[in-house]
Amino acid sequence: xxxxxxxxxxxxxxxxxxxxxxxxxxxxxxxxxxxxxxxxxxxxxxxxxxxxxxxxxxxxxxxxxxxxxxxxxxxxxxxxxxxxxxxxxxxxxxxxxxxxxxxxxxxxxxxxxxxxxxxxxxxxxxxxxxxxxxxxxxxxxxxxxxxxxxxxxxxxxxxxxxxxxx
Length: 166
Fold this sequence. Notes:
Blueprint: H1 20-23, H2 32-36, E1 41-46, H3 54-67, E2 76-81, H4 99-108, E3 115-118, E4 140-143, E5 150-152, E6 163-165
Parallel strand pairs: 1-2
Antiparallel strand pairs: 3-4, 5-6
Protein name: Mono(2-hydroxyethyl) terephthalate hydrolase
Organism: Paraburkholderia caffeinitolerans
Pfam family, one: Tannase
């Protein structure tokens, strides 16, 4: 990151504008065109992302909600992934499917109240070496739409069914 961060702001030859303005539009909370056409948006961010802070994404989602009367959940959902690095990895349940819940939301009006994530332990085809050995095989966790979070209720600590989004 120390070597490549400056490239985000770089311009040269055919690239007269840096990539940064595309990543941060001038009014990033005005998603009225998206909302008004009935589109849906799902955003997730690992809380241990060393590149971009999940706090910034949380702040954006809070401002998006404010810009939409205090609640944007009818067209946008934001999920934090505890312990996950940039897009994957970290001591986390970092394997999940956001496409299937998106399709159910768009095609059937079923907004995702939780998404199940699985830790890639040693038995996984692509194991995550940062998953602690003491975690149970196939540990799952619910990813909850912000501002909700997974709260242990009772039962097997390795099973998403033992947690509620509250």
